[in-house]
């Protein structure tokens, strides 16, 4: 009797173990063919507009790809963690996503957080594709790539665009000297402005601790007779500047980069008129008349309560399709293969992606090469110029 009981106990133990392994496998072959893409960015806090837009744009691309049958029988799953633009929280988010099966990192959205995450992605050897981390160090390793322009590119291209397309020659700059993003763009803008014959009549700095009162900077702008104000800063601070510029009687145009995206939200419905005439460098305009953009804007509005996508949403969308293109180019059909990471990383320098933000190619630097565009805000909408 004891012998039979012992045999039955052994059978029960083996059954429980087998069941446990089956549970870990989830849905079996279906889970084995699901590529977990981990997004990291601010979903709460002052800069949440950037992370939310990336997440929403990326999700639309994931849904489209899966509805079409995936790529090489591989389905995509997007998991997104909030980092509140904090580097430590970004690393914690990365580790959480790795525990959840992440194979490709879509992060982080902001530069400081992204740079911290690159260290972890390098150790693990996985592809990191940031939609919008623009600081140069975001692609410091050979497994790291980006969709957006770099800070230096934005500074140079902004100066070129102003010199080649606008009449303003006397330029004032208001920048955040405590922010690497702002400093990087400013330095390149100043250098290129000298080449293009633009005169920098005022260069006014602020810090994260003095980012609500711009009366002194705006007075300097007014005193120097600036014909345009360049704002290589984020939308939160820019909203304060636009409100205070009106009070100060400053009516010259303002020009910014991708950080200015989200300015309408920061101004709020009652103050959106203050953004009329504001220009920003962007590779995406929601009012473009090409079929791809029209379809994206339509789906985005339907899915997200009538919202109009900004360039961060387009960056997220393009990032997912870039991952798809790399999988296709590498001929990957098994995400658990030992050479998955090597193959998808190597393929990144071999693909050409026709995205919402332009036609993109990448070299070993990890930076995307594509054309720059600019938009002007008119009655609450972005109009290509």
CATH class of the largest domain: Alpha Beta
CATH architecture annotation name of the largest domain: 3-Layer(aba) Sandwich
Q: What is the number of domains?
A: 2
Q: Which spans have pLDDT < 50 for at least 5 consecutive residues? A: 1-30
Number of distinct beta strands? 15
SSE succession:
HHEHEHEHEEHEHEHEHEHEHHHEEEEE
Stated plainly, the CATH topology of the largest domain is called: Rossmann fold
Mean pLDDT: 91
Q: Which radius of gyration do the C-alpha atoms yield?
A: 24 Å
Structural class: alpha/beta
Strand content: 15-25%
What is the makeup of the main sheet?
7 strands, mixed
Strand order of the largest sheet: 7-6-8-9-10-14-15
The CATH superfamily of the largest domain is Response regulator
Descriptive overview:
The chain is of the alpha/beta class and 385 residues long. The protein has two domains: 33-148 and 290-371, Response regulator (Rossmann fold), CATH 3.40.50.2300; 152-282, Rossmann fold (3-Layer(aba) Sandwich). Helix content is 45%, strand content 19%. Helix 8 (215-223) packs across helix 9. The chain is globular. The N and C termini lie far apart (88 Å).
What topology emerges from the helices and strands here?
Layout: H1 2-24, H2 29-32, E1 34-41, H3 48-67, E2 75-82, H4 87-99, E3 102-107, H5 111-124, E4 127-130, E5 144-146, H6 151-165, E6 170-176, H7 180-196, E7 199-206, H8 215-223, E8 228-231, H9 235-248, E9 254-256, H10 263-267, E10 279-281, H11 291-303, H12 311-330, H13 340-347, E11 352-355, E12 358-362, E13 368-369, E14 374-378, E15 381-384
Parallel strand pairs: 1-2, 1-3, 3-4, 4-5, 6-7, 6-8, 8-9, 9-10
Antiparallel strand pairs: 10-14, 11-12, 12-13, 14-15
Helix pairs in contact: 3-12, 4-5, 6-7, 8-9, 12-13
């Amino acid at each position: 009797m004891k012998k039979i009981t012992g045999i039955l106990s052994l059978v029960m133990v083996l059954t429980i173990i087998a069941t446990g392994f089956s549970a870990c496998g989830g849905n079996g072959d279906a889970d084995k063919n699901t590529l977990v893409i981990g997004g990291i960015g601010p979903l709460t806090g002052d800069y949440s507009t950037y992370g939310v837009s990336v997440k929403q744009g990326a999700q639309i691309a994931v849904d489209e790809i899966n509805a079409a049958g995936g790529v090489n029988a591989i389905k995509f799953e997007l998991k997104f963690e909030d980092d509140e633009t904090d580097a430590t929280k970004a690393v914690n988010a990365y580790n959480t996503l790795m525990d959840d099966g992440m194979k490709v990192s879509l992060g982080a959205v902001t530069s400081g957080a992204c740079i911290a995450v690159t260290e972890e992605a390098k150790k693990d050897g996985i592809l990191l594709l940031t939609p919008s981390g623009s600081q140069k160090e975001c692609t410091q390793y050979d497994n790291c790539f980006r969709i957006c322009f770099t800070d230096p590119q934005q500074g140079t291209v902004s100066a070129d665009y102003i010199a080649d397309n606008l009449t303003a020659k006397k330029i004032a700059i208001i920048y955040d000297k405590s922010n690497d993003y702002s400093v990087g763009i400013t330095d390149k803008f100043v250098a290129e402005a000298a080449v293009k014959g633009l005169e920098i009549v005022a260069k006014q700095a602020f810090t994260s601790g003095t980012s609500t009162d711009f009366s002194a900077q705006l007075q300097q702008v007014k005193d120097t007779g600036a014909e345009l104000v360049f704002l290589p800063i984020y939308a939160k601070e820019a909203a304060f500047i636009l409100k205070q510029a009106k009070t100060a009687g400053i009516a010259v145009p303002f020009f910014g980069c991708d950080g200015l995206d989200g300015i309408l939200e920061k101004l709020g419905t009652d103050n959106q008129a203050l953004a009329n005439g504001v220009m920003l460098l962007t590779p995406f305009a929601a009012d473009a008349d090409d079929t791809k953009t029209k379809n994206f804007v339509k789906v985005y509005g339907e899915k997200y309560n009538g919202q109009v996508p900004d360039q961060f949403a387009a960056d997220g969308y393009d990032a997912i399709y870039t991952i798809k293109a790399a999988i296709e180019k590498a001929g990957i059909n098994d995400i658990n293969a030992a050479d998955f990471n090597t193959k998808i990383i190597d393929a990144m320098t071999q693909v050409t992606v026709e995205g919402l933000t332009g036609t993109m190619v990448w070299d070993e630097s990890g930076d995307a090469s594509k054309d720059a565009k600019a938009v002007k805000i008119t009655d609450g909408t972005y109009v290509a110029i």
